[in-house]
Amino acid sequence: MLDYKKHFSLKLMFTFLIFLSSTAHANSVSPNTQISEELKYGNLVSAQEELLAENITLKEDLITLSNELITIKNQINESKENEGIEFEVWVGLLLACVTLIVTGLGVVIALSAFFGYSNIKHTATDAAVKKSESLVEQAIQTGHFNKLIYSAVERAVYRDILSENDFPEDEEVSA
Prior knowledge:
Blueprint: H1 2-28, H2 31-83, H3 87-142, H4 146-158, H5 170-174
């Protein structure tokens, strides 16, 4: 804007100097030259008026362009505010969430494995002992171990001196 004012003021000064020189020269010149000087002066005045009109047009264009630039800047700022989260940001957030979930599952599995193994081992041992006790108790009550018990007692008492035929079990039944 200052450039237009400088140029305009320079042109105005130049026109004024020409006007002064032509008026000073016009007083000392003949009437024919005075008419040509008046024509030159008229041309200069019309050129000055054209420059003034052009200057006004340029100022209006500058104001219009400034307003358009402000409007475009506002539109850009509004579009940036309304854009929201872009695709890359969503992908990053989703990957971070998946990482946290997998890490959490790993920690839960590790803790359950640590406590679970010892619990499973202890529970399995207890269950095996209870089941074997109940099976042995049932076998003793039904007499499945009688032969084994009698032979063990015979070996301990008689130290394998007597044979199996010395004390037959059938004699008790016949008597």
